[in-house]
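hey all, quick one before standup. I had two proteins in the batch that finished overnight and I want to keep them in one place so we stop losing track of which output belongs to which input. First protein below, input sequence then structure tokens straight from the run.
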Amino acid sequence: QLRSVFVADLQNRYSFREMLATRISLTAVAMVVMLMACKVSGLRPRATCIVLMLGIAQLLDCFSENFYAVAQRYDRMDRIAKSLAARSVLSLLAMAVLVHFTHNLVLGLGGFVIGRLILLTGYDTGRDTFCLASPAPDITIPSPMENFWGRIRPEWNWRKQVRMLWVAFPLGASTILNSINLNMPRYI
């Protein structure tokens, strides 16, 4: 729920770069948890690779959430809709083509990941995302004139990041509880 925290932060307590650094930290934890879960459950190497590829695709979606937060904060939901639509089509197309020609699910999932990565690096992190805030005098996001690496450079401020997580935790917990509540009949 970092996106919600960033969008609702009208006092500009958290910068885009701090949110990105928090997301990177959480992503590292998620990757370790995925690897441990695969190891503990005793999955075969192929199944582990499939789980990790899907996990990487989801983690790329999490990174896109940071850039969606910028668009949402400046009322450009159309940019988010275009990204979501293009990401779905590109990922599905890349996966379908690779599975069709190679008959290999792991390679197909590689195409799925590459489709998401292309959209993240080519559209979501593009200069146009950061041009959205140009009328705002209190810009808390990178300048659109920075190069690619400058626009995606995180800023580590552990104190602010812990506060950001503290604010986001109840939102995330309620989302998890709602999801469990909706899916409980399936689980049982």
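OK second protein, same deal, sequence then tokens:
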Amino acid sequence: MSEAVGLRQRLFGWLGDAAKANADVLPVRIGGVDFSRTPAQPARVSDIDLPLLWVTVALLAWGLIMVYSASIAMPDNPRFARYAHTHFLTRHAVSLGIGFVVALLAFQVPLSTWERVAPWLFIASLVLLMAVLIPHVGKGVNGARRWISLGIMNFQPSELAKLAVLLYAAGYMVRRMEVKERFFRAVLPMGLAVGVVGMLLLAEPDMGAFMVIAVIAMGILFLGGVNARMFFLIAAVIVFAFSMIVMTSEWRRERIFAYLDPWSEKHALGKGYQLSHSLIAIGRGEWYGVGLGGSVEKLHWLPEAHTDFLLAVIGEEFGLVGVVLLIALFFWLTRRIIIIGRQAIDLDRVFAGLVAQGVGLWIGFQAFINMGVNLGALPTKGLTLPLMSYGGSAILMNLVAIAIVLRIDYENKVLMRGGRV
């Protein structure tokens, strides 16, 4: 018996030594706690989601080409006579350069740091949203005060607010996970935060950005596990609120009526002008388009061709094939980002997973709205096409959001290899 006990002690002693020797390489996760001792390794090319990166670069490059095509004739208009033909191309390229640098820096920031600074980023976005309403601080264009001039670019605080609300909502759901079944303790504080942002955006006015932020917050609440009855109650309240905003605003009502009948004598030269010329541009493109640079509608017929209605120029120059290809790229991009978020949640990284899925909702929903407006399926709304339309702050924040998703995917891979982040 004593020999058997001695053998058992030696066997377990050997197994204990082996476990200690392999503690640095075995990814053991018990109850959401990572017991791995392997230090995080520097990012390698294989750690980066290259398909996601290359699809993003393809959309950025295509957008740069189309911004040049859509804006090349604008200096012929007396309003833009002092601009060179490459004015918007140059500014867009500078925005891309700045965006790449900031995105590279954002990729270096661990998700734990983003979670820690999320409330402060949210407060900073509120301060900037208030600052843009101050005379001589906020810059007004076409009756809206949405920008702060930074010299080399005009910064739009609403774009920062989208990322800030996304990060804050994800962190909020992680902190409130234990009370997600209680409406007032789980949902009401977040609803008040989004409501404050909404009031500031409507004061600019920028209802489009408010819609995107509301969808991001709603999506994160749903993905975070809020009770389904609560979710549908919140959705009903939001739909009612937006309906009342439209009904109490004469010019918003006119947009709805123009969307329903853009070809009428009353609307064709008014609120339906952009939509009717967008449909004409897409109709001219037919199957294969008129060729790059061959658009007629961009020649001072279609307003904002290089921003909100860039898809109409793509449809005219590349036809149905180009539009379908673009839709497929955005669908793939959104789906891939959502999958990265699901992988993070499977690794017990709830904050990272909700952030990635929130970015997918942001890009996917905004692209859906922009495409719907250009194709006449939705009422006209001032939202740009993500990663493609002209706009420095939008491009900047889109690239930062993509960089954060790439960081989440990198950390997922490190953990799956047994490392730690």
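Flagging for whoever picks this up: The chain is about 65% helix and 5% strand. The radius of gyration is 25 Å.
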